[in-house]
Amino acid sequence: xxxxxxxxxxxxxxxxxxxxxxxxxxxxxxxxxxxxxxxxxxxxxxxxxxxxxxxxxxxxxxxxxxxxxxxxxxxxxxxxxxxxxxxxxxxxxxxxxxxxxxxxxxxxxxxxxxxxxxxxxxxxxxxxxxxxxxxxxxxxxxxxxxxxxxxxxxxxxxxxxxxxxxxxxxxxxxxxxxxxxxxxxxxxxxxxxxxxxxxxxxxx
Amino acid sequence: xxxxxxxxxxxxxxxxxxxxxxxxxxxxxxxxxxxxxxxxxxxxxxxxxxxxxxxxxxxxxxxxxxxxxxxxxxxxxxxxxxxxxxxxxxxxxxxxxxxxxxxxxxxxxxxxxxxxxxxxxxxxxxxxxxxxxxxxxxxxxxxxxxxxxxxxxxxxxxxxxxxxxxxxxxxxxxxxxxxxxxxxxxxxxxxxxxxxxxxxxxxx
DNA sequence: TAGATTGTTAATCGATTAACAATC
DNA sequence: TAGATTGTTAATCGATTAACAATC
Lengths: 204, 204
Known about the structure:
Chain A is of the alpha/beta class. The first copy, chain A, contains eight helices and ten strands. Chain A has a six-stranded parallel sheet with strand order 7-4-3-8-9-10, with helices on one face. In chain A, a hairpin with a 2-residue loop joins β5 and β6. The termini of chain A are far apart. Chains A, B: Homodimer. Chains A, B: Residues 77-177 form the CoA-binding domain.
């Protein structure tokens, strides 16, 4: 039922942060005020956001950390693992493999490259595969996410190919604005854009 | 003067996207409608955003791409190079070095690590330095940004140390919520949070 | 000229904050 | 009980959209 309620985008963004706060908490209960102070936001807003959840707080006590975390984990679906492929066998691919995404319920199952000469090389524990076998690998592992790490000039074409072959969501590190069919999920991780934010803030 | 006008956060975020659109444009003029279609937003919003800039469009013609880009480059300050250090000599550091941030006016000038045993090793063309010489390096290169790539358990302490020694902005890849002195700039690049967004969208 | 497009003001929509009764 | 904290409604604030005159 909770899923049927519309969750405002701004609330959704904050729910991710609350989850992070809860992870860092050792106490069994936490108040909206504590959460708000930590994130430097208004405690009213925290309570309002939680009103979209099933979870109820206790007056004078606060929210049950464990219960709240469970509901958020459920909302984000971190308890069922989603399989991810990495496309582009380079330093960025290596970096992604070195990070631990198990807390988000994401597991890397294969690494691909568009260049034939890289096929067979190892990136971490993964032998690089060629895109010819993409569809087979997607089906075999039920891979839904692709981290797109290819060069800018290959970004658009590769992304389309991934969606055609069954990938549901592209985690786009290329910095290129992707134009994909209706329904395809794209989440941009544009590092250059972040640097622009920093540069702008530095000027003040 | 334009700097003195308050720029809404939402407008700022879109200005970065407009810049990206302009980069991909070959024509000398572009209309608010073309930009809006590309980004799947309302053209009225594009014009409203541009009203915060000095740049004026021409009825029946659109906006001068070159002129607009110049103003945005100015706003973000990409024409004067800002020096950046990377802290944490690992795969992520290597990945950042492999990317080209010159378009954002950012240049890496040194790589550091908290572990003495990594000092002297090479990450790309950079010999890894120890944090003892941080202050000297910051002064010598006038480094203002630090990309924080250390492990979670060292994140908070290292970030504070960086700010103490003169770093103005922390580009935080650790996923840890940093608590830093008033005035310190933090921009979070939390990959796990992005995956939560993807996982949530996949459930629909 | 007619028509396309800008720039701006007014109307709407959504998100945040204030206020306060309910509760433990 | 008194006081702290929740949950919710109303008020405010800010951002988006609609409307339209100005312009080339």
